Amino acid sequence: MTVVVVSAVCLLATGCSDGSPGKSDKAKPKSTHTVLPQRLDKPAPMPEETLQPSPAADASFSENLAYELRRKTQAMASATGKITAECPKDLGSKSGTQATCTTTFEGVKVEWDVSIGGKSSFSNNLVEYKAAPRQGILTRDGVARLLHGNYRGSIDYALCNDIPKAVIAPLGVQSKYRCEVVDKGEKPSGFAQPVRATDSGPRYY
Question: What is the pTM of this model?
């Protein structure tokens, strides 16, 4: 049996009055942007292990690869949810083999281009591989986890434009979803930045 190893290359300012007479209050300039409707509070931490069951001891190469792609899909989503994966059942570990596998996260489908390499230098039971997703996934919980993690304890919440529980998004470029982080004790300004999907989780810039 050949074991799949998880790896990128292997399988196994406001103005105000000073109170002096004759001086008028200076109002904070208003944003020309709309305050976004969706509030994202701090989510619960990701469980250490959520993908069950793991492949059986006698699982095929295809089954082991599918499990590793489930792990990669969860990393992309940065959230918990139902994840399935399917690779060609007759997929072998021969170097040079290319295949398309499919994963789904909460019903959102991602196709992966997989290339099988040679045996790993660490063990004959390990096989090198590359797996590149054709699409990205954005999740509401994943974006919340990213923003509250980036601004550790300095924000009250974030506001976004209705990010679904899970949705397909292009990889590495601005998505149609935007968010604003609201600092503690402050009110929303209405200025937001785009959210992007990457193969290792959402990004905000």
Answer: 0.80
